[in-house]
Amino acid sequence: MHVLVFSTRPYDRRSLERAASGHALRLSFTEAALDAATAPAAAGADAVCVFVNDRVDAAILAQLKALGVRLVVLRCAGFNNVDLEAAAELGIAVGRVPEYSPHAVAEHAVALLLTLNRRIHRAHARVREGNFALEGLMGFDLHGRTVGVVGTGRIGECFCRILHGFGSRVLALDPQPNPRCLALGVQYVALPQLLAESDVISLHCPLTPATRHLIDAEALARMKPGAMLVNTSRGAVVDTRAVIAALKSGHLGSLAIDVYEEEGDLFFRDLSDEVIQDDVFARLLTFPNVLVTGHQAFFTEDALRAIAETTVDNVLAFAADGAPRHAVSVERLA
Ligand code: NAI
Q1: pLDDT tens digit string along 115-169?
Q2: What is the pLDDT of residues 174-214, one digit of tens each?
Q3: Which residues make beta-bridge pairs with 215?
Q4: Same domain, 249 and 192
Q5: Which of 56, 97, 165, 308 has its CA 20 to 30 A from that of 19?
């Protein structure tokens, strides 16, 4: 099997080469993201390996099919960037990494929450300037506060466990309540109650038609005044323009994001010498109560190792049986 790996960074290459070592696999790497212009590079490859911001829509899949590609392996959990129906029609199998380290993402969400609440990012900058004043750095105890969790799958469950340890009251929204969360004492409620009662809301659901802009102007208006929103799921679960309006009015107290609706043009690259062209994103960066990381929640050594091992396993299973170990099917879109 020959696999062309798109959107490769040095750490991807190292972990994939280590995982593939000793197996009958040929890996080629390109830094380019998959799109209409770069797809022809897959000529001669049996499979392509892609990441969160690679475009795998119907047109690209048709291009890949014509080039002889039979398998798309995602080195991530979310698969919202793949047109699964088109893949099924074309007979291209799709595999993903359903679980690599839910702890990595949950711990990053907690890191964002704590940093933003206790203003650690601002305190760090101040102390280095010799400014030890506390004005503007006040946070709140998480103990006894209400934290709302949207999506209590693998990552949401880890997040609930950590917040339970802090002594927070944890509310959750999920069409499929998780028995382990129920056993912890997590209370499942409808969205309006979660919005109205939570001091902090953390998003851990996938991006689907049902969750696109789940947090829109109406949802934001229902949130407790001054509440914090944390998003480590997918950018488009949140309507960024509505969030900016809520931050400007002061109704939304603070925002921490690791993902952004239009992150494909920004994240995973060093743009420090360039002018940011995305005015919505640039506006977000002007708020003192907004904290942004560039889709790094997954980025731990444990997670990268697991991602590489599962990706190689998906390809080897496809080579042996015609199906990746962790196939994604159209039904999962529902
Ligand atoms: P999972 O599949 O284990 O859990 C997702 C949960 O969301 C399920 O329990 C599901 O029932 C629930 N859900 C589905 N629709 C919902 C809705 N309308 N409202 C509320 N809950 C809903 O997935 P996992 O592993 O926990 O990952 C969650 C998401 O986190 C992924 O889909 C991905 O988008 C994102 N993610 C972000 C990463 C990052 O680096 N920032 C890394 C990995 C995942």
Answers
A1: 999 999 999 999 999 999 999 999 999 999 999 999 999 999 999 999 999 999 9
A2: 999 999 999 999 999 999 999 999 999 999 999 999 999 99
A3: 238
A4: yes
A5: 56
The preferred substitution site among 204, 207, 302 for testing ligand 1, maximizing ligand atoms within 8 Å of CB, is 204
- The pTM assigned to this predicted structure is 0.92
For residues 29 and 175, state if they share a domain.
no
Q: Are residues 177 and 313 in the same domain?
A: no
Q: Whole-angstrom Cα distance, residue 2 to residue 300?
A: 27
**Looking at residue 59, what is its pLDDT?**
98
The count of structural domains within the chain is: 2
How crowded is residue 148: how many other Cβ atoms within 10 Å of its Cβ? 26
Residue 332 Cα to ligand 1 midpoint, Å, equals 12
Residue 329's pLDDT is 81
Distant-in-sequence, close-in-space partners of 106: CB < 8 Å, separation ≥ 6? 155, 156, 158, 159, 161, 162, 204
- Whether residues 145 and 285 fall in one domain: yes
**Residue-level pLDDT at 334:** 47
The CATH number covering residue 325 comes to 3.40.50.720
Whether residues 59 and 13 share a domain: the answer is yes
If asked whether residues 7 and 149 sit together in one domain, one would say no
Q: Does residue 330 register a pLDDT over 80?
A: no
Average the pLDDT over 301-319 and give the result. Answer: 97
CB 168 within 8 Å of CB 144 = yes
Residues with beta carbon inside 6 Å of ligand 1? Answer: 77-78, 102, 105, 150-156, 173-176, 204-208, 210-211, 232-234, 258-259, 295, 297-298
What is the residue range of 81's domain?
Answer: 2-100+301-333
CB atoms inside a 10 Å sphere around CB 141: 10
Distance between CA atoms of residues 265 and 322, nearest Å = 34
